[in-house]
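It is worth pausing here to work through a concrete case rather than discussing structure prediction in the abstract. The textbook approach is simple: state the sequence, then state the predicted structure, then interpret. We follow exactly that order.
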Amino acid sequence: MATRGASTTIRPEEAEHFAKLARDWWDAKGPMASLHEVNPVRLKFIRQAMDSHWPGAAGSAKPLAGKAALDIGCGAGLVCEPLARLGADVTGVDAAAENVAAASAHAEGAGLDIRYMAGEVAELDIGTFDLVTCLEVIEHVADKRAFLFDVTQRLAPGGLLVLSTPNRTAASRVLLVGAAEAVGYVPRGTHKWSDFVTPEELLELLEEVGLEVTERRGIAWGAGKGLHLSDNEALNYILAARRNG
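Step two, the predicted structure:
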């Protein structure tokens, strides 16, 4: 089992970048429109992973009833709120206090009881969780190995992790960084291509911190389909992993 490194995982400039977007996070046609488009695809994978991991709750309207869920890098709560509606006791953690404030206000308006906290997950006394989600986050952290160790410490034995991130390919460099930022599909400065992680690199890191990957899919775009789960991982991929023991 790997031990945690000494470095801080969150870059201050990354937190500041996303903090500036907090007030517009829930605007489906605003600067975070790309997240609103990909969110149903991510949630579909999360539901499939939950049904495989906890088959007794498959098909239930509240498959996470009695379970605790943590969303790391929660932004303004786009994933936390659906998890709460699936029955989970949800905690959302984000490096930017502005995002946490926006998330809390939106959840209150929706009548959802979600605990939001600002800071690094390693520094917060929040216990362990049956489900941990970490979506489009690892590409923004400085020390990926240390970050994944911290993530693993938040998983209860037998817990489920769902993680998504862009792949580091020629296609992602052209489309996710160059074209997407040029046309305003994502805010300029959101991505640094050299920080993207390939599936092979990520699987090696996950194994080092004691996690076993159980499922992996690409998130691709197609004419007539839009964004969808696919075997094509050239742009983005999402995976499920379990903590054994």
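Step three, interpretation. Strands lie at 68-72, 89-94, 115-118, 129-135, 155-166, 211-222, 226-230, 236-243. The two ends are 12 Å apart (CA to CA).
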